[in-house]
Inverse folding.
């Protein structure tokens, strides 16, 4: 559940972050995100946030492993494709000779 990003509507927006965080966890959410960088609110949330354990920890570990190990990109092939696209663009769409700028400051 996201706090501070106006993802909630209704009377909950007038509540303080501690009460709101308690209600979010009581509703069954595993994790609460707070993203605006307000340290006072971050501390209030952190003080009442439970440690991940048991099934909650398993779900978090599973989600992190999928995200962290999901990139199967071939970096060399991607760099080559980027280079080819850039070369294509420069050869066809640049209408002036960049060599005239060599040595100019």
């Amino acid at each position: 559940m996201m706090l501070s990003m106006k993802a909630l509507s209704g009377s909950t927006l007038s509540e303080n972050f501690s009460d709101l965080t308690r209600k979010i966890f009581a509703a069954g959410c595993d994790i609460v995100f707070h993203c605006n960088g307000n340290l006072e609110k971050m501390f209030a949330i952190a003080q009442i946030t439970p440690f991940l354990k048991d099934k909650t920890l398993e779900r978090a570990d599973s989600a992190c492993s999928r995200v962290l190990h999901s990139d199967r990109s071939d970096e060399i092939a991607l760099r080559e494709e980027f280079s080819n696209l850039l070369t294509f663009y420069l050869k066809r769409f640049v209408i002036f000779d960049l060599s005239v700028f060599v040595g100019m400051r």
